[in-house]
Amino acid sequence: MDVVSDAIFAVRTGRPSSDRVRVGGHWCARLDPYDGAGFHIVLQGSCWLLPDGGAPVVLGPGDVVLLPHGTGHVLADAPADPATVARAVPFGPWRDGSLPRPALPVSREREVEMLCGKYRLDRDHVHPLLAELPSVVHLPNRAGAHPELRAAVELLGGELDELRPGSGIALPGLLDLLLVYAIRSWLAESTAGAWPAVLGDPVTAAALRALHSDPAAPWTTDRLAAEAGVSRPTLARRFTTLVGRPPMAYLTWWRLTRAAALLRETEAPLASVARRVGYSSPYALSHAFRREFGTTPGRYRATGGDPVADGSRRHHPRHGPRGRDEAGAGPATQARP
User: Fold this and answer.
1) Strand partners, 29
2) Which pLDDT score, from 0 to 100, does residue 295 have?
3) DSSP summary character for residue 184
């Protein structure tokens, strides 16, 4: 796979969920912080998004907003003062109709229709590309901008108009596309953060494509440099500067992160998982896995990767290419198949 696909695969748990919401008049609803990524698509009308600790964002027809870190926020018909925000009703009961809505005259022009939902993510193993996304990614509906994202929004709107055969597969698939296209759009437009620069550098991008397309291969820095078409020192310097750690240390981290996802999402035997991520034996994988995650693969799988359920696990702060203790990474040659 590629870096963006792998970054999503490593943290995805379960299926995305969504609700179609139509409301009018004066309204204000709160969504508390949560583990996962939230999104809103305005299908009709306009409203305001008021993120906790952030600047208000006005959303118009066709706008997409992604909240990749599950930031708490308020949705409202207009900018609201702190007192109004404090009285916002919870989104869940408000959406479900178990809380009364304001009985005010509503013109068709003031009606708002949205698709609101979330992706369930494992926050313990977030790839640094996703970690550096801003708390609010606003992608306005501008002519000619983000054509793939616009197409996904139109398809989602059509799929929601009526219950069609196969919608149980089509809708989650379109929601997955929405996440991919939103991240692509951010990467294309962002002038801040490391990862747009990482993927924009031809040498580092080529090395990452090679590592992610076949993480189990017996990679060395020399072989990876040949794949990227540069010398070993050039690859080491550019990769380390942009990504934040040497290529082989990144590979070790990624192999273990991928192993965690396979343990969480599949029933493959440990020996099979070890082979798929480049370790010669279950013992070699177990040794490296415990060093990285503070628990054994068996315990990790038994608890579904939940650090609370596994009392032996400690919080491990060394996830991602930046800030990890390099001595703990181990040479990639130890993980050859």
Assistant:
1) 75, 89
2) 93
3) H
pTM (two decimals): 0.81
Distance CA 308, CA 312 (A): 9
Cβ-based neighbour number of residue 231 at 10 Å: 12
State pLDDT tens for residues 216-239. 999 999 999 999 999 999 999 999
Question: CA angle at residue 259 from 253 to 265, to 5 degrees?
Answer: 135
Please provide the size of the chain in residues. Answer: 337
For the chain, list residues with pLDDT below 70.
Answer: 94-109, 161-163, 306-337
Q: Are 7 and 127 in contact (CB under 8 A)?
A: yes
Identify the pLDDT of residue 82: 81
Q: Hunting for tokens 């494992």 — which residue is that?
A: 122
Cβ atoms of 297 and 263 within 8 Å: the answer is: yes
Measured CA to CA, the distance from residue 17 to residue 280 in angstroms comes to 39
DSSP notation for 36-91 = SEEEEEEEES-EEEEETTS--EEE-TT-EEEETT---EEEESS---HHHHHTPEEH
Supply the pLDDT for residue 332: 35
What's CA 179's distance to the chain center, in Å? 8
What is the rounded distance in angstroms from the CA atom of residue 88 to the CA atom of residue 35? 21
Which residues, 6 or more positions from 125, have their beta carbon under 8 angstroms from its beta carbon? 10, 11, 257, 260, 261, 305, 319
- Rounded to 10°, the helix 221-228/232-243 angle is 90
Three-state DSSP class for residue 256: helix
The span from the CA of 82 to the CA of 291, in Å, is: 46
The per-residue pLDDT for 23 is 86
Burial of residue 196 (CB within 10 Å: 0-12, 13-18, 19+) is middle
- Sign of the Cα torsion 89, 95, 96, 101 reads positive
Taking the C-alpha atoms of residue 322 and residue 128, their distance in angstroms, rounded to an integer, is 8
